[in-house]
Write a structure and sequence with these properties.
CATH superfamily of the largest domain: Periplasmic binding protein-like II
Number of helices: 15
Distance between the termini: 66 Å
Mean pLDDT: 90
CATH topology of the largest domain: D-Maltodextrin-Binding Protein, domain 2
Number of strands: 12
Shape: globular
Oligomer: single chain
Order of helices and strands: HEHEHEHEEEEHEHEHEHEHHHHEHHH
Strand content: 15-25%
CATH architecture of the largest domain: 3-Layer(aba) Sandwich
Bound molecules: zinc ion
Low-confidence stretches: 11-28
Largest sheet: 5 strands, mixed
Radius of gyration: 23 Å
Strand order of the largest sheet: 2-1-3-11-4
Helix content: 40-55%
């Protein structure tokens, strides 16, 4: 009888401890919002990887949960339906979502420059791309715009080349196998073809369009409005991480190791081409990109700067 009572007492203690532990977790979550950020495993999300790696995603006013995706459409679907609160994403995809009525705000750039046009080694000029098949990751991408600008600059039109959309990870093999004669895509897939000796750099993005925008950090506006303090701290931290990422030191490589698997020498080359500093989205640059979106007939009514970009947080970042 006594044994039974002791066992009952033990069970009661365990029950109470479990309840209070749950209560504590719930309380912590209430006090400290979790910001779910979607990403693809590309070098362009360096500052975000550093945030999540160096601090383990834990900060005073918030915590970051990194959510990995393997394709842009999957990531955009999660963002548009609110399964994630924000993302490191191609700016054109976010603009398209905004045009469709999803209330997003771009709060910082992911990087500047850092893209290359890769071609097979037999091709040495843009003109030689005429009649060839060339891959891009998505029509809503800076890569597509860089290709368009390159062709225009070198006297070709978009119709002179057979442009196909292809998942980034398949591009180096597609080039090696001869299905495509070249591609332009987020890194490290350009550097990978160079290191595998399957292709070479036909053009660097900064020759075609200096300081070009590509990936941005976007957040759902409803999440921003409900978590202003956390977002301020997050963007301030993100700017610091951008500066650290731009040093391209050990911490950055360690964070890449956590979020994407790629050999160091490929990353080394890839990082030579990219800048993580100066991550504020400037109006003049945005307008240039927006005008090109209209010229290429990618969107009829892309969002205007004031509607799409929210610099409130980056301007207060210290
Ligand atoms: Zn990018």
């Amino acid at each position: 009888m006594r044994k039974k009572r002791v066992r009952m007492l033990m069970l009661l203690i365990i029950f109470v401890m479990t309840i209070s532990a749950c209560g504590q977790t719930a309380q912590q979550t209430l006090d400290k919002p979790t910001i779910k950020i979607g990403y693809l495993p590309i070098t362009h999300a360096g500052p975000l990887y550093l945030d999540a790696h160096v601090h383990g995603g834990q900060f005073e006013d918030y915590q970051i949960e990194m959510v990995k995706f393997n394709s842009w459409p999957d990531l955009m679907d999660a963002l548009n339906t609110g399964r994630i609160d924000g993302a490191s994403v191609l700016i054109q995809l976010a603009m398209k979502a905004e045009e469709k009525g999803i209330d997003l705000k771009a709060v910082a750039l992911g990087h500047k420059d850092g893209n290359v046009l890769i071609s097979s080694k037999e091709i040495h000029s843009t003109q030689e791309l005429k009649g060839k098949t060339f891959a891009i990751p998505h029509k809503f991408s800076t890569h597509n715009q860089l290709l368009y600008e390159t062709l225009k600059k070198d006297g070709l039109t978009y119709d002179d080349v057979n442009i196909v959309e292809m998942p980034p990870a398949e591009m180096p093999a597609g080039l090696a196998g001869g299905q495509i004669s070249g591609y332009v895509v987020a890194e490290p897939f350009g550097a990978l073809a160079v290191k595998l000796d399957k292709g070479h750099v036909l053009h660097h993005s900064d020759e075609i369009w200096p300081d070009s925008y590509c990936c941005v950090l976007v957040l759902r506006n409803d999440f921003i409005q409900n978590n202003q303090q956390a977002i301020q701290e997050m963007v301030s931290q993100y700017v610091k991480s951008g500066k650290l990422a731009n040093q391209k030191g050990e911490e950055l490589f360690a964070s890449f190791d956590q979020f994407m698997k790629m050999e160091k020498e490929v990353l080394d080359l890839s990082l030579e081409w990219i800048s993580f500093d100066g991550l504020r989205i400037e109006q003049a640059e945005y307008e240039k990109l927006r005008d090109l979106v209209i010229e290429m007939e990618l969107m009829e009514n892309p969002p205007v700067y004031e509607e799409f970009v929210d610099n409130t947080f980056i301007d207060k970042a210290v």
